[in-house]
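WARN retry 2 of 3 for item q-0093 after timeout on previous attempt; input resubmitted unchanged.
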Amino acid sequence: MREVKKQPMALKRPAVKTIAAKVKPAMDPARKQLMEHYESALRLMQERKFEKARSAFEKLLQASPTDMAERVRVHMCACERQLVESKANFGSLEEQYDYAISLLNTGYYDDAREQFTGILKKNKDADYAYYGLSVLSSMTGERDSCLEHLTEAIRLNSRNRIQARSDSDFQDMSDDPRFTDLLYPEIQ
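OK item q-0093 returned
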């Protein structure tokens, strides 16, 4: 007689009963508003607007429930740390200028503007800071501001005119006759 192999019996599991369309309860309107403020403050952080973000988190902390308060505190600390770093002590105005240029090159235009303006508060004759502001204005499409700052940079140091002639950061200004007149006064 031939031996028949027995196959192991499949274990039958009890059917799990679930609710097919389980719906989350609607979010409390006050909680929803807090979440919107929280997301807004996070966006400010991402845009490197740390002062505004810190203020937003401070307001949020006052109304935050316990489960949210700790996250808010962490973000407030991060904003504080960034603000301290951004107010770094520079050994010279040239170091501050180099930092401003690095901010400009990485697209942090508001922070770069703040650094250039800070240089001018310390030395109103810093032609390189005016030049930096003119480049920044060109890159952000502020033509009048660009011309104003470049005019001042050239007034303080005529070599800025020569530099601006070959500076690719002014390419968006090349079609403006006022820019051409400023850079090539001898042609007029």
